[in-house]
Structures are given as structure tokens and as C-alpha cells.
Please model this.
Amino acid sequence: MDQSLSSGRGHVSVLGCFPPSVGRDVAVAIVKPLRAGLGNPDTRSLLRTDRQVKWTMEVLCYGLTLPLDGDTVKLCVDIYTDWLMALVSPRDSIPPPISREPNLYTQKILRSLYSLFLSRSDQGSPVYISLCQQVLCAVQSLARDSAVMSRDTWDTLLNFLLCVNQTMLATGGVSEQLSHLSMAVLFEVWLLSCSRCFPSHSLWQTGQQMLSSCRHQAAVVEQWSRVIAALTSRLLLLTFGPSFPHFKVPDEDAALIPEDMDEHIVPQTWFRFLHLLSNPVDLSRPVVVGSTPSSHEEASRGDSQLPNIFFRAMRGVSTLVDAFLGVTVVNKEPTEQLLPSTGLTTRIHFRDWLPSLDVCFPPRLLSGVAVTRSPFRDRHPSHGVSRPRSGSAPPIPVNILSLPIAPPSTTSPPPHSKQLKPVNVSKATSKPLASSSPHHWKLSSPPPPSQPPLCSSPRPSPSPLRCNVDSLLHLFGDWLFDAALFNRDSGLPTGHGDVTVMSARWAAGRAEACGTLCRIFTCKKTAEDILSVYLSRFYLVLLQGLQVSEEVCPPVLASILLNSTCLFCCDLKGVNLLLPSFISAVEKVLLDRDLLMFKGFVSPVDLRRASILVLLTMLPLPLQFGSVRSEVLLDGRFNGDDVTGGSFLSLKPRLIGVLIGALQTETDTSNTQIILAAMLNLVQDSALIKAAGQTQKETESQQGGARLTGGTSGPSGPSANRWTRGTRAVQSDAAGILWVQFVRLLTQRLTAQWRNDSAVCLSALEVLGGLAKVEVSVEESERRRAVTSVCCYIVFQCSRPPPLHSRDLHSIIVAAFYCLNVWLSQHPTLLDHQECLLEVLEIVELGISGSKSRQEEEVRCKEKKELNPASLRVKEAAEATLSCVMQVSGAFPSLGGLLGEDAVIGHSNLSDSSMKNFRYFVVDRSVILSMLEQPQGPEQAPCPSLTVLIRGPSGGHTWTLQLHLQPREGRTETQQTLIPEQHDVAQEDAGIRCGVKHQLFPENIDRVASVKVDLSIPALHETVTEEVQQQLDRLQAALKWQRQVEARPQVSGRSVVMKTCRPPHPITNFQTARLFLSHLGLLTPETLKSPGTSGVPAQLVSLDSSLPGFSEDLRHLDQLPSRNCDSAFIFYMRAGQRTAAEILRNVEFSCSVQSHFLDFLWSLGRPVEMGRLRQGGGFNTNKFPAVLGDSGGGVFNGQRFVLMYTDTLTEITFIVPSSSHMSDLSKSPEEAEPPTGVPSNLQSLFEPSRDSTPSSPVEDLKSFRFELSSVGSESKLLIVWVERFEDIESFPLSDLLSGTKTETPTSISNVQLIFVHPLKTGLYLIRFIGNTTSKFSSVVPLVNGSVVSKRSLGFLVRETVINCCQRRRLESDSAPPSHVRRKHMINDIILRYRSRRSEPAFYAALFQEP
Model:
């Protein structure tokens, strides 16, 4: 290359034959007059002929070799750079021969300028650097602006730059700034040449040889990385089109690629540039790294920078791989690092790229691609120990966890490195450079220490348009596999004391290569096949990198874990053989609290999160494959004894041990929540395995076509046999033991280490509630322990000082009460224990009143307590718990719902006029009593009867009371009232009187001494008022007249004939409402008096049912649910579908969906007919196939059927929208058919305003579209079954939401999606997408990246739906719980229809007909 440039001896001047003083004097004498004419447009050049120019160039060439102590070299440079502009804009100051033949003279000038860059003693001086920069800038401008350059000139120009770079990089001693500039100019000019005059094949070979010999220099790798990245950005746009995620590079890098470069030239240029460095892995082989003496010297140095350069090369390749995958790295968290050998601090941005709880909507879902930071802004990584997270605590014992960690702060990314300008030696020096265009090059950061940090920046999901894995490996596989399998001890020079320390310095590049390979393989598409040779090499990389023995390489181990979070759910052939190796790796990380060996290059929190996600994907494998034996289970080492076979089930104890140990050592909030979700998944799966094993013989005898039954009772049918085959080795009580371990661990940490972390506590309470629903055989004391722990937690939170009370704290208390309700409703026998019942009631009292009556030895009566609850929400939650206690304990009957007045009349065969005979009362301002005093049925013997409809916050109930004088068993149908026989003749003893002395007190009362208590009742005359005295006078007059009447027969002296006494006829009007209220103690002056507070009614209030709107409000109250009514919508997305219409048509026929999808629907709930919802009717789960028919699930679109899951506290409606459903919704009200019925949880959501008219049934159906959830119409929850996982990015969420035409617009940020993707292993991969702005957004048990079995899928999805809606209720003030909504409605009814009658009128009305 040097010979080709110097073939015309252009850089050797004739003045070199003379003594130095002669040459210097001649050069000084010649250049000064020439320099004076530069820059003046009116000055003509002194040189007019070719001979003059050539002779002058000999002088200038010699002047370039002179020392820098004078201005001669600078003047020579100024002259040459001015003459070079002859190809750009000819001027009079340029000699005419040069203007006539600019290409020829430009080639000669370039050969002469090469003399400036030859090795010299003062090449490190600022003047020399400035001159070199001036020449490079001139060459750069020449290539940019010239339009008449010939091919020979382009070749000479490229050869000139190649020689300049080789000379400066090979000899060493040149400043790093200048080396970066020279490489940047070389690559920019080369790109310009590719656009205008494509270099010849020989020139490409020359460039490859030069760069390969100089790749040991950091500038070569740095500038090559940025250029190939810019070319890749242009290539991806041309290859994949604008729909592919844009690979954004800095603007100055993108400007390197000419805009007019032909699209056919871009791939050729990209491929040739990619291989300019040959194999970058040769950097790790000092023997072959370069061909120059400086490269061998660099390789043999103890402080060689080759390991760091090797890492930078691998980081560049990794960036290209991410670009082809459609992944753009976003760096969030800044970490301060102190650079070595400097006192400066730089900001390094890196954060975990894992797909964990911090999820957001994919770009395709939002119909756009988010603009992200370029990964090249941080391509010079700084190194050191990462800054600890805010709020983290020092290492502490295993059984104690630190307080919650504060969220990381976000700062703006660091600015780009400023463009280096030439050093201003003098005014004359800077003048010609002031007008030059800026240089597109960057300065490298100071050399980092031995171990760079691993890249853990957040990466979004890869694009579904990405290329195949094999295609990427064809491009980069050789380099990546060579780097990942690099033998660290090979190629190292002998004679070093510690070879292990020397070889560990290469671990960063190897780790980057391993992580890149993991990302490539985990981005495998659903139906994609990978060559076996690539899989085998990849598994060999993992086996070598996952070693945890004394030869462990922490950077490689960490990189593999960081990039393999979804490796076991990609359907890679044979990947399960690596299960023991990964278990050993996660044990190494999760069981070590400090992670000292990893802290120097990766965040421990990020590493632990990656390990937890890997563990999450491995947990279902032992139970899924059971006792299936593998001939080989590789554990990461290569000794003969370590490669053994075994069953997958034998690995379950290790996984459980890692899970429990991880929970005990974890201090990060998000990581803890993921572990909690995994615990519930594992326990539920183990319990269903046990249940399936017990009923296996029964299921084998069932029909072959039966599908999986719903609920948590376990699988049945032939599919269950496939799941449980080979799992009989599981101990019968394994699920119970595991349940007890987890419950004890959760309750202990809930009341100790976690009680200050609200997010973790909320997840722990949700998991505890889920464990309460798992059917296992454990002692009752274990369940009581859980209830006691929740009670203790509520006591602790309520007893916090007032300054610490906040909305978040009260939300956690409300969630704890709800968890308590779940335990009591799932296990009502807990209340049979007196201590447990007393403890629960004390907690209820604490929530309602704010304190307990029994505190230590002091007992305070209810009358003496002051109501001061923690908040109104806490009080309402405690009231709900009290209602739950009353219902599950049997003290309060729950008869399956409330019958309205119309239904009572219909069942009683009463006339329509009986509707007006109901009396309405309100007790304690919270319960409405509707009383009907007429008997329910025909009775030959009338008896007191009362029908009471009770409407309260907890729901409605119907009571029927009858009073009989004999027990039910002793009564007969012909029983009548006993009446004596009547005789017309008087008896003989009639009229005989017996003397009886009537006395009010005994005769001896006067002889008894009086005491003070006798005076406690005052005499009548002492308390008589004037009004009462008048009444007494009238009473005395009446008594006097009565005595006179009674004395008349005696005065007459004649006898009185008396007839036989007969009982009166039985009465039919018993006034049973008055009796009922009196027996309850409500007819007292205290209950009828107002408490004195304005607007607060008395304890007993009557309602005026004659007022208009009363019956409508009662019906509306009956429609409000008494349970938490939620809803979810289920969609089926086939492979490759993009539109909403295609997705909605899938569920029309069963042939369009997978059979596992129908099993999934069956496991969610039972089919219920719309018209029978209010009557509690529906279909048995065994009739699911009859309801389903030939449908693919679209029969449950809400027109006739829905899927319903109900328990004591929750009611979930699952809707499967179909195309026919949406077409009906688009019809007008006249065209649409009215529905047969609306479920309770649907009607409750459309509370009409007081001034609005009731909507028609058709309007209710159209409102039903996506308005089911009581959480609020602005939030939606969708469950999507996807056949191809990469189609998630193109799910048409906006079209589906807009197609529903909801009255309230739904924001995408208020939508939560659960994607279910079936794997070939029979497991299911979950991707959860929701709003991440909330503090309580991490919902369990299904988190992003969960892998679950078919047995547990339905249960876990239901629990996730319940918890999502429950968290929405906790956060939103517009969506109160159902009992609160009913309470508010009751208060409105009281205020509107309260009777204003006086107390006497109230009592009088009780004795009158209503």
C-alpha cells in the first residue's frame, strides 16, 4: 500500500539531497510569497506553467518534513489545502495548470501531503495535531463537495487515507483525538466513494488488510461500530420497510451515509463494511490480532487494552443484532461512575431490559413506535461498582428484610461528545478552519478498567417482522460462537505469573457474545425451525457459561441469566436438558444475599430479577413432565459423573428450595412480587396434581369426549390423564406440606419484614387469598394461623401514628379486610372456634370504631367509646367483614337473593292490590324493611303472618314469620279453634254471687315497714301536670259513673239472670308489623327520636311509599349487586391475523379455534342463560358441550349465554365477543331484538340519573358491550388467546375498542390485557400488559413471563381478573365497592321518601291498615 502511494516518488523532494540548512532556507523563501497570495480574490497566482508548479511542489514537499519550530510547515499545509479546492471551486489564486488539470495535481498533492504524517519526534505537539486536522478536514471537504473527481483521484484519495491511518496507528505515539479523526474521515470518504464511485475489489481488499492490522487500536473499532450502525439503520429501512421499528442512531452518525446512495449499493456497502475488520474475535487471540510490531507489543503488555477493545467490538455486533431483531435499547437509570486515572465523573445509563412487572404497551399496540435513545450514546462504557439503589440497606440476616426501595430517579441522557476542533495556535492558524464544516466523529472515553458493566438496558419486545434466527446466525454466528466459546487461557503469552487473572479480563467480551446469542435464540418465532448445528453449539455455550464451580465466570453467568428469561418458553428442541444447569445458576444468584462477585459490573437487583424470571419458567416443568426420564440431563460441567439421567420430578425439591430461599433473601419490591406470584402458581398446580391422582381411575372410566371441568376441583377427562401420567411418585401430602410452608412464610413476613412495604403487602394479601381457595388437606390450626396473622397486620396498620396515615395505607387495610373475607367465606368452620371468632369481631370493632373495647385489662363499654375509625373506607370494609361473618356463621340466613314485592305477590297468590299493603321502615339508617302483614298462603285457621323483605348494604333477604300455638309437627289441616257447646237453658248456679273483696295490695301491707326503695316511685299526684290532671279528672268521673251502673242491680233487689260465657270469634287482624318491631325493641321513645344532628334520621324511620318514583328506586336498589361484579372479554387470535373482524369471526365455529381454547373456556366458569340470571338459574357444568355446540365460544357473546363464575364475594362474567354480536350492536334499536334478560352485574352499571328516563332493553344491551365491570366503564380487561406469540405486537386493540361504540371513551392506558400463548410442551406462556403508572399495578398471580399448566390456567386467570378489578377499586374513587354503592342508594331513598309524621301519628299508623 505504501508502494502504490509513493510510486511517483511524490513524497520525496529533490531538496533532500542538499544540506538541511539549504533546503530549509529555500523552502522558507518560496512558501512565504505563495502564502501571502492565498485568501485574496484579487491576487493572481505567481505560478503560471506546469514546470513552475512541479518545481514548487518539490519545495513544498520538503517543507512538510521540516521541524515545527517555525511557520514553514504550516504555510506549506495552507498552500496545499488551498490548491486542493481546485476540484471544488477554482479561484485565481490557484495556479492555472492546477485549474486545468485538477485531478492530476490533486493526486500529486495527496502524495506530497503524506509526508506530513510520517513519524517525527514532535508529533504529539498541539501544532502538529492542528496541522493534521487541517489536512484531514480539507480532504473531507474535497470528497464531500467535489463533483468532478475521477476514479483515479478517488482511488488515490482512499489510498492516501489508508496510508495515513496505518502510519499513525502502527507507529503509536499519536494522540487519541487525532487517531479518531483520521479513522472518521477515512470511513466518511469511503462511504462517499461508495455512493459516487464504488471502490474496486482490490481497494476493498487493501482496506480490509489495513484495518485488520490496526484493529488493536480503539479508534478503529469505535469508528467502525458507529459507521456499521448507521449503515444498518439505512439497510433495515430499505429491506423491511417503514413498518419495521426504526433503528435510530445519532444524527451525526446518520449523516455519514449519503442521502443519494443508491438502494442497490447500500447492501453491498453494508456487507463489505461489516467484514472490514475480518473476524473481530481475533482481538482475543494476541498471536493473530495484527501484523504490525505495535500490535504484538500491545498484546504482550500486562495493561493491554485489547480486552476492552474486544468487548467494544462485541458490543457493536450485539447492537447490530438488536437492530435486526427490531429491538431498540432504552437506557433509563443513571449510575455515577468514577473513571480511573481522572477526577471526573461521568453518567452511565443502564437498567434492566427484562420483560418483568415494568411492562408497557408494545409499539404496534399503540399504532406507533416510541422514540428511544440511541445505544451509541453510551457505547464507551464506564466501569466500576454500581451505585446502590436509593433506600437500600446494608446486608442483614436472612430472616429480616429491608424497607421498600424508593423508585429510581430518571435523568436526561448525557449529551453527545462534542466535536473536536483544531487547537488554536494563533489567529492565522484558526482562520482557514473556521469555515470548515463540522466533523462527524466522536472522541472515545478514557480507557475503562478491567471489567466493563453488562448491558442491562430495557429492550422492548422484538418486532414480528424480524428475520429468522438462522439468518442472523449466518451473518453473525461465527463471530458470536467463537467469542462465546473462547478459551480464556489460549493464546496468552507464557511467563505471566497469574494466567487466571490475565484471562479473566477477556470475560466482558465473552459475556457480551453469550448474552447476544441468548437474545437471538429467545427471539425465535413460534413456528420457526433452527438448524441443529446452531442449537448444539448454543447449548454448548450455555453449558460452559453456566458453570458454578470454582471456575465460574461471573460476567458470563450474569449475561446468560440477564438474556435468557424466556429461554424455556420458546419451544427450543432439547432445551429442557439444560434444566439442572440453570437451577444451579439461579441457586448461585438467588441464595446469595450480597452477590459480591457480581456487583462490579451489574446491578444485583437486575440480576436477581432475571434469575427469578428464569425460575418462573422452570417451576412447572417437573410437574408437567412428571417421572418422564431423560437419558441425559446436563448440569453445566463436563466430567463423566456429572452427565447423568433422571426424571424431571426429581428436580422439584431443588426448585422449591430456590423459591423459598429467594423469598427470604430478596429485598426488592418488584422481585418479591414475582416470587409471590410463583408461589401461588406452584401450590395450585401441586394441589391439582394430587386431586387428579386421586380421581385418575374414575376419570379413565368416563367418556373419551369429556372435557376439562371448571373450578378448582381439578382436571378430569382424558386430558387429565396426559397431564398426570407419571406423577404418582409425588407424595400424597406434598401439596399440603408446601401449602403450610408458604402460608407460614407469608404470614411471618407479612407481620414483620414486609409490613412497611405497601406494594409487597398487597401482593402478599392477594396470594394469601388465593391460597385460601386452594383445596388441600391441612390442619385447621394452620388456617387459623393465617387468619390471626391478617388480623395482627390490620391492628398494626391501624395503630400507626396519624401522620403516617395516607390513602395508600388505608387501601392496604381495605385489602386486608377483603383477604379476611376470603378466608372466612372459603373456610366457614373457622368461626366455630370461639377464639377465632372473637379475634375477628375485635378486628371488625377496630375498623368500625377505631379502637377495641378490650385493651389489656381494661374493658370499655360501647356507650363510652367514641367512633373514630381510621377512615371511612376502612369503616366500610370492616362493615363488609361483619356482614360476611354473619352470613357464613349461620346467624344471618342467606337464602339466595331477594324476592321483590312483585315476586312475593306472585308466589303468594295475592291480588295486585296487595302491593299497596306493604309497610316500609328504615332501621339504623342502613336497612330497609318491607313488611306484608297478609299470610303467604291459604290458612283454615288464621294466624299472625308477616313477610319481611330486608334490603341492606350486604344484599337482600326474604323472611317469612308465622305464629302458631302448637309446634309444626302437631298441627293438622283440620285444626280449628276450640269453642264450647252452646246451651239455651240457663244453668242452676247462674246468678249466684260469691263475695269477693277486691284489694290492690295484700292485707298485711300496712304492717310492713317502708324503706327508701319504696319512695323511688313517686306518688301520682307528685308528677301530675295540669294537662294530665284534667285527664285524671275525666277518668275519675268515668269511674264514678261506672260504679253507679254496677250498683244498680243491688239497689233494685232483683236477681240477675246470666247466660253461659263464650269465647269471642278469632280475630283476623293481628297488627304483626307492630308486634315484630316491638319484639326487636324498636318501638321505644329513644328509637323514634332524632339524634339531634341535622339531616340524620332516627333509628327507626317509616317511608312513604305513595310518593312518585318510590317503587322505581326500590327496583333499582334491587338491581345493585351485593357482590363484587367484574367482567372480562375473551378473544381468539389466529396466527397472522391483524384486523378486528378476523379475530371476531374465529369464535363462530369450533373448527377455527384450538380444542385447548374450549377447555380453557370451560375452566373459567359455567354457562348461564341471560334470562335466568336473576333467578339464579343456568346450566350445570356437565352441560357445557350442549350449550357450546359447534361454536368456537361465540355462543357466550352475551346475546343468550355468558360464562359466569360466582362465589360468596365475587361474580365474574366472561364474554366472548363475536362478529354476529358486533353486527347486532351496530343495528338500530328498532332492528335489534330485545334481550331475554340482563344479569345483575350488568344492570348495576348503568345507574340512570334521577332526571333521565329509563332506557329500553335494546339500549341496555348496546350499553352492555364493554360496560360490564363495576370497576368503571373507563377500564377494561381483555383476555386474548394467541396462537403465535409475536402477533401480540399487532393486536388491534384500538379497532376492537372503537368497534364497541361505548358511550364512555376508553383510553388504551386503562386497558389491561392477559395474553395466553400455548407452548408445545403443553404449558402456557402469559404476557400481562397493563398500566404501569400506578404504584399498585403489579398484579399477581399472573405476571409478565409466567408459565402455567393447563390444570391451573383457569384458576390463575380468574384470580388475576379478581385482583385486577380489586386494585382498580382501591385506586379509584369513582368505583366504590358494591356494599358502599348500595349503602349510598339506601341513604338517597331515605332522604327522598322519609315520612315526616309525628310520633303519635307513627304509632296510630301501626294500628291501621296501610
In short: The chain is about 45% helix and 5% strand. The chain has a mean pLDDT of 77.
